[in-house]
Amino acid sequence: MSGPPEILTEATGVAVAVDADGPLAGLILRGASGAGKSTIAAQLIVACPHRRTRLVGDDVVAVVRGPEGLDLAAPPDAPAGVRGRLEVRGFGPAPAAFAPRARLRLVADLRADAPRLPERAAFTHDGATAALLPLRADDPTAAAARIRLILRAIIAGQ
Question: 17, 62, 95, 101: least buried by Cβ within 10 Å?
Fold first, then answer.
């Protein structure tokens, strides 16, 4: 039996399409306010070449034990009016394509000092793990491209 969900604040969750028809890969972007979480999420969604990338949660996400490892999920107590809404700085919450859950593959800590070749690390919850990497977010378009490449490599077993 799995334990209770771990609720992460200052985190944005995205179900990323890395190919045309495979399962979506769960991504958590963590960082302080203004670090670029929502901007990178918007870039991943809007510029998805497969038009299948979806928002799971903005500012608050849940991590739960799923049948194949860890799952990223919308917080269980999130009001319906918050689901599928992404904060756009200078405007407020805007609608975005929504997915309630995805298998968690990567947790990216947004940091200005992210090393070029970081050591491998893991995010752990309820006895299961997902990859954990620091990521520079100074250019959201480049960060989104790196994330897609990293997720493809993780799914391929690298």
Answer: 95
